[in-house]
TrEMBL record:
Gene3D superfamilies: 1.20.1270.390. Residues 125-232 are annotated as: Disordered. This is DUF4398 domain-containing protein. Residues 138-187, 207-219 have a biased composition (Low complexity). It comes from Dyella monticola. Pfam families: DUF4398 (PF14346). Residues 41-115 form the DUF4398 domain.
Length: 232
């Protein structure tokens, strides 16, 4: 027997198989067209990255900041390939990582400032302690000098008092004493009596006769005692 296939029947069988494929393609194209480009989300992620960079995230939290940068670059590639849904998800993840990096950077910066203040206060305390120690040493030195001066003045005053007491006990000063202690005292000499001059031999041998006054009688010669008195 000869079988004759009709082309119309074959076409009827192919049409139902092609229809689902076309529906899937149309739905996929419609879905892509319904998702708008995530421009706002990309801008927010980029702004958050810049804020984290300004806060010092590359220094204080380089790990989270690196994640944020990588995801933002992937979101840009998805935007270029018109994978808007994927780009939106990646931009959100990039913004979250950038926010975390910024927060950690601010916290680390605050801790660094606090530590700097603590170190500065420690240095000030050390300087104040050194200054106080120097002041104490200077005070002790001045106190010792003042005590030495007071002791010297007291000794000088006691010496003057002892000198005054010695003067009051011995009213006669050394200048008024008749002789110094080392000089021996000499006995007082009796007054020297002047001897009467002896009469000369001529007077004794040849007495001068007294002139007889007229009208007087015989006069006796004076004895030796009277002659001696007369010679004196």
């Amino acid at each position: 027997m000869v079988h004759i296939f009709s082309p119309l029947k074959m076409r009827k069988k192919r049409v139902p198989a092609v229809v689902p494929v076309l529906l899937v393609l149309s739905l996929s194209l419609g879905g892509c067209a319904s998702v708008p480009p995530p421009d706002n989300q990309m801008n927010q992620a980029q702004a958050q990255l810049q804020s984290a960079r300004d806060a010092g995230a590359p220094d204080y939290d380089p790990v989270d900041f690196g994640f944020a940068q990588d995801k933002f670059q992937q979101a840009q590639m998805a935007m270029a390939n018109r994978k808007y849904a994927q780009a939106a998800d990646l931009s959100d993840e990039s913004r979250a990582d950038a926010t975390l990096a910024r927060t950690k950077a601010l916290l680390a910066a605050a801790r660094a400032q606090i530590q700097s203040k603590v170190d500065a206060n420690s240095r000030l305390r050390a300087q104040n302690a050194d200054a106080q120690s120097e002041n104490d040493q200077h005070y002790q030195q001045q106190k010792a000098q003042l005590a030495a001066q007071m002791a010297a003045l007291q000794q000088q005053g006691q010496g003057q008092d002892n000198g005054d007491n010695g003067d009051n006990g011995n009213p006669a000063s050394s200048s008024s004493s008749p002789a110094s202690a080392g000089t021996p005292l000499l006995p007082q000499q009796a007054p020297v009596q002047q001897e009467m001059p002896a009469p000369s031999s001529s007077v004794l041998g040849n007495p001068q006769p007294q002139q007889q006054q007229s009208g007087q009688g015989f006069q006796t010669m004076p004895d030796a005692g009277q002659q001696n008195q007369g010679g004196q």
